[in-house]
Specification:
alpha+beta
Length: about 400
């Protein structure tokens, strides 16, 4: 016999008692004063649970074994499980805090390194000296090279009609210390040079008169870029749009005013047109100076501030195409060519083309590709002359880019 841990009375451990697996105390399985400790009815216990506990009778060869646990031990066990979970959470929180601290330290070191690498040497900038102009795009000494670049074309020989010998041109530049940013070939197989300054251009002209007197040097006037600003509000005038851009983008205004005397202070809004895919917004086509285009591209990541947000900026290349003969480089008012359809290349106006009115795009034929002397890069003429995918149109775009200093310096 033993004492029931619940009612503190004697209990027969071989008949009506169960033992707690955890604390090994005994309890009445049936007829206990504390009814919460009664396992089952007396008959069910003696016929089923007792044999299962003792592994007798039909339970002798069965897999597994029954265990009982008192309320106190159950509560203690559950508390330990909760504490174990809380402990794990606490450990994870500590690890996260350590990782955050390490990350902050590494980030601080990176910032220190960047600040140190961006700081000029002590012999050029003392601790008492401050940069008077922290924005490099507001510093005229940093941007003046954009305007001083000169583009020259060395013409073919007046005697033989051949382009200048590349070795003579190279030797002239090297021996006289002439800095050339870029060289290129024109459509007439003449040599074009982009020089860094007016002085370099003058030196080259003078020296070539001696080393290559039969080759004339022509000053090629530089073009200015054109951009499209997309996402501007409708019903805004050109004057108001220009004023808003200048107010919210002061560097653009400064570049425009600082170099107005040099002919580089250009910011002209050419047109404002509604977007085809959004009736609520418009696109502004603006002619800008090379300096302003360079600032928008490299200083603003091709975006400008406008209103309560930013607008995306894209390059625009306006290639002239004659509506009469469909050739590039002139307009119909100055055309001396023959009338040619822009859709089928026959001798009639594009707007009255019978093939086009039938909406049969497979019968389109580009007159420029059809009559081109250089068919090396033309795979097909099955497109209208006004197609944006026309290889000759794309070649004209590249030709236009070569006359704009901003794209030449890339």
């Amino acid at each position: 016999d033993s004492i029931c841990n619940a009612c503190q009375t004697e209990v027969d451990i071989f008949q009506y008692a169960v033992q707690c697996f955890k604390c090994e105390s005994y309890f009445h399985a049936v007829e206990c004063c504390d009814s919460s400790y009664c396992v089952s009815a007396k008959t069910a216990f003696t016929q089923h649970l007792r044999p299962a506990l003792d592994r007798t009778g039909s339970f002798e060869n069965r897999f597994g074994k029954f265990f009982f646990m008192c309320n106190s031990c159950c509560t203690e066990y559950e508390l330990k499980k909760v504490m174990t979970h809380d402990k794990k959470v606490e450990v994870i929180d500590k690890k996260l805090d350590n990782l955050k601290a390490e990350f902050r330290n590494e980030l601080s070191e990176i910032k220190k390194y960047l600040v140190k690498s961006a700081t000029p040497p002590s012999d050029t900038l003392t601790s008492d000296c401050q940069l008077s102009n922290p924005n490099p795009w507001n510093d005229s000494t940093r941007t003046k090279n954009l305007f001083n670049k000169k583009v020259l074309v060395v013409k073919k020989s007046e005697n033989s009609g051949e382009p200048i010998d590349a070795s003579i041109l190279r030797k002239t530049c090297v021996e006289n210390g002439i800095q050339v940013s870029k060289s290129f070939s024109t459509s007439k197989d003449e040599i074009g040079l982009v020089l860094n300054s007016e002085a370099a251009a003058k030196t080259l002209v003078d020296k070539l008169k001696v080393s290559a007197p039969c080759h004339k040097v022509q000053d090629l006037p530089s073009r200015t870029p054109t951009i499209n600003v997309v996402g501007i509000p409708n019903n805004i005038t050109k004057e108001d749009l220009k004023e808003e851009i200048f107010l919210q983008n002061p560097t653009v205004r400064k570049l425009n005013s600082d170099y107005a005397e040099q002919g580089e202070g250009k910011f002209t809004i050419l047109a404002i047109t509604k977007l085809k895919n959004n009736d609520d917004l418009s696109r502004a086509t603006i002619s800008v100076s090379n300096s302003i285009r360079d600032y928008i591209a490299n200083g603003c990541n091709d975006r400008i501030y406008l209103g309560n947000g930013t607008c995306k900026v894209y390059d625009a290349f306006h290639v002239k195409r004659c509506f009469k003969c469909q050739k590039f480089g002139h307009i119909s008012e100055k055309c001396e060519g023959t009338l040619t359809c822009g859709f089928c290349s026959e001798s009639h106006e594009t707007r009255s083309c019978p093939t086009k009115s039938a909406s049969n795009l497979t019968e389109s034929c580009c007159s420029n590709c059809k009559n081109s002397a250089n068919n090396n890069y033309i795979s097909s003429c099955s497109h209208p002359a006004y197609s944006l995918e026309c290889p000759i149109f794309k070649a004209e775009q590249e030709k236009l880019k070569k006359s704009i200093p901003f794209y030449l310096k890339k």
